[in-house]
């Protein structure tokens, strides 16, 4: 790799030959940038990993392993996989260049809309299993199949992401040697041992169970209790949670519970076998029918910058979420963020939240609480000129230096964009902290920023 990453203040930003246009998403492990390929003139997504995690995982040895598995993932081509285009390394920071997909995640779909029909469940699982079959034939085990890694495209398709590199990028604090998300991990994966495609069959069984029953097979009690329950393997049939079991419930339960077998030898031998069993138990799957169901809904001309979600500090947003979670349960967080993302001012946000409450007394109490919480955000945001004038350039540079280890080379760009909307240096610091997903890193940034 001979190209140097070029970040020019006030000019274009590059990772290798790829222009960086913004941030698509951020997580505990790293950042996904929106990029542009100048040779083919196409949009791309560029994923990287936080430097401190690389060092903690083994430094140079980790980077070499990342490169090998990234290239293996790039050779797996299938309509139900997010395509890996390129792999780069700038210094000790790796970048994975991938297909940019206009999509939402299955996780978001499950949280935001009514339950899926059995035909929709079949359409999703059939495509998930087709993608798994492709990577398994290429010698790759996903290791971290979960709703957040299942992309639902505008055209009604399903694409798996993060396959093959999960062992490198999913370094959850679940114990030495373990990789994956605990609720979806096979017993042998929990033990930190070697896994084969049957671990993905197990994870798909958990996913199928969740889609059918509306809950995971094992819940609550922390990681140790979950591990004990998974090893025991005592789980109720998924259709037993439904008020009215569907036609073919016994065959459906049998297929899903077989996929969830504790002993890998008792599971389906591969993804194709599980797909065949589900096909005999679920209604016919029509991929085209997913198009309207999963296309992301966005209000034209409105982005986060012009909404309450873009204006509220991380502390205020968290308090609103806590208020709603206390009244409505886990859905409260989703309702709070959805209301903030669709509201141009505090009144609109409050009205959107209150529309989800049925009791008049509860609505009035919530309105008073939210009015107090949103008082600082009721006024229009500061103009870019006023905000920029209020924060000295040297302060912006200092904050960018503190932020860079957490978000990578786009730190200065992010600082300048958020400074244009921040009413004070403190408000800017809080907005930047909100871009750091890890709670420990966020606290360290706030402490160092002062």
Automatic annotation (TrEMBL):
Gene Ontology terms for molecular function: ATP binding; protein serine/threonine kinase activity
Coiled coil (residue ranges): none
Name of the featured protein: Serine/threonine protein kinase
Keyword line: ATP-binding, Kinase, Nucleotide-binding, Serine/threonine-protein kinase, Transferase
Annotated positions binding ATP: 47
Source organism of the structure: Albimonas pacifica
InterPro entries linked: DUF8082, Kinase-like_dom_sf, Prot_kinase_dom, Protein_kinase_ATP_BS, Ser/Thr_kinase_AS
Domain Protein kinase: residue ranges: 18-279
